[in-house]
Design brief:
- The protein is α/β, with parallel strands linked by helices.
- The chain folds into four domains: about 1-60, no CATH class; about 65-120; about 125-305, P-loop containing nucleotide triphosphate hydrolases (Rossmann fold, 3-Layer(aba) Sandwich), CATH 3.40.50; about 310-375, Helicase, Ruva Protein, domain 3 (Orthogonal Bundle), CATH 1.10.8.60.
- It has 17 helices and eight strands.
- The chain has helices at about 1-10, 20-35, 65-75, 85-90, 95-105, 110-120, 145-155, 160-165, 190-200, 210-215, 220-235, 255-275, 290-295, 310-315, 330-335, 340-355, 365-375; strands at about 10-15, 40, 125-130, 180-185, 205-210, 240, 280-285, 300-305.
- A six-stranded mixed β-sheet has the order 3-5-6-7-4-8, sandwiched between helices. A two-stranded parallel ribbon has the order 1-2.
- Helix 11 (about 220-235) runs parallel beside helix 12 and helix 16 (about 340-355) packs across helix 17 (about 365-375).
- The chain is elongated.
- The protein starts with a helix and ends in an 8-residue tail after the last helix.
- The relative contact order is 0.09.
């Protein structure tokens, strides 16, 4: 670098996004000795410090600025403006990405789809990016819970109107997203509901793999989480933390360094959830295990009830796709068995495989066998119907 600086009389831009702490310290010393202008680029505030370093914060565009950016890009591409409000309320595009999306729209691609493709980053192996296919008809929930889920969709879809046009953003310096907790017993449809939300919004569903995020090394978990949150914001994806109590558990009394670092990790999550600008969904089977500080930061809590007899009958009626050959299915009799929606779906799938192997329709015997296997998972008695 010193040679190139002397020969080319150039300045340097150094991306610190993937640099470790030791590398950053070495670069800090280098900038003191190089004798050339150096710009250090980092997604973390105060990533480095030094006597000759000046920190310059570059904030994200607000809703109004994103709208104007997309509108002007569409006009330059020769596409009539008019749909930019909806897209700008969800997608935080760079200048280059906005120009590319506008060009795609001029070539016939729907603006929403163009923005979605241009905003999609490359996630690391710590998440699973899903293309959701579930729809509202796949959910069997009480009217109150369905109303809450529809309200979550409205929070994303009409974000620009409420925050910018109606000036609710002027009441807070933050640009708030939505954080929802789906709580209820296993198999009641919490993950399915998150998929329905993503499908309704026409966005990716990003499921966080906690085994890949949590690290024994100090600071590594926070770094992994920062990358996940940042990538989800950049792509406007719906962020899903399944079994969230494993990550958002209660803070403990500090007895040793492990407790201290665990509490620091929880504190980081609290701060990052508050500043997250998209839709994040946390699911849990044990709401009481969550740290109370997380509960205060939740915008919506949807309780998924265990299905009663009438609900189980509806679930059994919808357990098989219309194209599946079924012979002698009795939803009322099947509903007498105490199973949640996830268990009913598992039984239906197992019975379908048994029927396919027998080259015939799904029969009562296939369902009886599949029910016995499903009940055996929890050590319960065999189905006697």
């Amino acid at each position: 670098m010193e040679r190139e600086t002397v020969l080319a009389d150039c300045a340097w831009g150094i991306d610190l996004e993937q640099a470790e702490a030791a590398e950053r310290d070495r670069l800090a010393r280098l900038t003191e000795e190089l004798g050339a202008p150096v710009a250090l680029l980092s997604g973390e505030e105060a990533a480095m410090s030094g006597p000759s370093l000046t920190s310059v914060g570059i904030r994200r565009l607000d809703l109004g600025e994103r709208r104007e950016l997309l509108k002007s890009a569409l006009l330059r591409a020769g596409t009539p403006a008019g749909e930019e409000d909806h897209a700008a309320g969800v997608f935080d595009l760079t200048v280059d990405a906005a120009e590319a999306a506008a060009s795609d729209a001029a070539c016939g691609t729907p603006l929403w789809q163009a923005c979605r493709e241009r905003a999609r980053p490359s996630f690391t192996g710590s998440v699973q990016v899903l293309r959701p296919r579930a729809r509202w008809d796949d959910l069997v929930l009480p009217a109150g819970q369905l109303a809450q889920l529809h309200a979550l969709v409205a929070c994303v879809r009409y974000r620009a109107r409420v925050l910018d046009d109606w000036d609710f953003a002027g009441r807070s310096p933050r640009d708030p997203g939505r954080v929802a907790l789906f709580a209820g017993p296993s198999g009641t449809g919490k993950t399915l509901a998150a998929e329905v939300l993503a499908a309704e919004l026409d966005l990716d569903l990003v499921r966080v793999d906690l085994s890949q995020v949590v690290s024994k090394w100090v600071g590594e978990t926070e770094r992994n989480l920062r990358r996940v949150f940042d990538a989800a914001e950049d792509s406007a994806a719906v962020l899903l933390f399944d079994e969230a109590d494993a990550l958002f558990g209660r803070r403990t009394e500090v007895r040793d360094s492990h407790d201290r670092y665990a509490n620091l990790q929880t504190g980081y999550l609290l701060q990052r959830l508050e500043t997250f600008r998209g839709l994040a969904v946390l699911t849990t089977n044990a709401r009481s295990a969550l740290d109370p500080a997380f509960t205060r930061r939740l915008h919506t809590v949807v309780t998924f009830p265990y299905p009663d007899l009438a609900t189980r009958e509806v679930l059994w009626r919808e357990a098989f796709p219309p194209s599946t050959p079924v012979d002698g299915l009795d939803p009322a009799a099947l509903a007498a068995e105490d199973l949640a929606g996830g268990g009913i779906a598992a039984v239906a799938l197992s019975a379908a495989y048994l029927a396919a192997a027998a080259h015939g329709p799904v029969t009562r015997e296939h369902l009886r066998t599949a029910l016995q296997w499903e009940l055996a998972k929890s050590g319960r008695s065999s189905f006697a119907g």
